[in-house]
Amino acid sequence: MYGDSADSTIHQLEEEIEFLSHQLKEKQELLISLKQKKQNNALECRNNDLSTADISRYSRQIILPSVGLDGQKKLKRSSVLIVGVGGLGCPAALYLVSAGVGHIGLVDYDDVEINNLHRQILHTENDVGLPKTESAFNKLLLLNRNVKISKHNCQLTSENSISIIRQYDVVLDATDNVATRYLLNDSCIFARKPLVSGSALQTEGQLTVYNHLSSPCYRCLYPQPPPANAVNNCSSSGVLGPICGVIGALQALEAIKIILNLEETLSSRMLLFDGYDTTFRCIKLRKRKLDCDVCGINPKIKSLIDYEQFCGSVANDKNASVNLLDKTERITVEELNQLRASQQPHLLIDVRTNPEYEMCHLSNSLNIHINSLEKNTNCVLETVEKLKQFGDDPKIICICRRGRDSQIAVNMLKSKLSTKSIFDVEGGLHAWAAQIDNNFPIY
After folding, report:
1. Among all residues, which ones are annotated catalytic?
2. Residue 371 annotated in ligand binding
3. Among 69-78, 159-168, 363-372, which is the least confidently predicted range?
4. Which of 126, 189, 247, 323 has the most beta carbons within 10 angstroms of its beta carbon?
5. What is the pTM of this model?
């Protein structure tokens, strides 16, 4: 009886705490919103001179010869758009707001997830589920209320990009997909804005400045997009958090140098950072191409196009559905679950990397990474032969994280093996976690 009473009291207290926490969060958001409106009204009425508080706050950078009082005024009058409030955008925003850039724009379509927190340092556990622009807005306003912060809670597209970009002096590309990189490049050329482009993957990072001081644009270097299957991002290949911090901070530095009209930017140069060896290299880029399709003398592209179609890949990671197989070559997670429960002979091949497999996997599955699957067809054949003693034609099932690589694996195996009973699992392990086992880890 006592145990039941204690459990009931604990449950009641937990519900009350959750309710009060929700109320507190709502009040905090309302307070921040009111302060922002008040601050925006004050900013509109205020001239561009520095106040006593400004001089005190920014004194450590004002005394730099490369900044000075005039430089700080330039920062106060300037505006920077950060596209992507993730691993790169978070540290970049922190330093730009801290430096006193007068207006910061934040573009992101996504919500905060728990797997963001190891690298996206503006967000906290309490922000999970909030739009990233909202979460970042709340933190940045607490850091510096004298900066105007605009939220663009949307995905940048050919329809809205130019109208958003034209409101700002400098644009930061803090995204991680090729389609958006081409979109931002072309938009910045049409809007005549410098573009600070950064990327971070695994333990490496890159940084350069496009469309500034006669530098080449992204299309000058990459006239055609790479094959969709060859492009990796943090979601598929991983990244070490501090790599994002290094590149994001350097993006903020390049934006500040552009605002201050300093010539020593990464225009026409690319910085390469190897976090594993802790080394930096700076390489000189080829000159701007006079026959570039966008920034050349006689450009072929004079308006924004369909960049997802051009790149053959989506501009976000929320719609990862790819159909490379016929419907008859695929099974659902429900069908896989029934197959596993029936004890029918089958071979389940997990084509993810070994670290991913070690992190989480279905029992009795064989881990062969897709890159080495072709070399391991003999291993697959041997396993299938062993299974034949339990049935005439055991099924071969390929599974991956979201159901993309598994389709490629099916086509690969069908070209090497005589058996036709080869299938992939629609939606992969994400679908398994959502529909079969809610306790299965997703990442």
Report:
1. 234, 400
2. no
3. 363-372
4. 247
5. 0.76
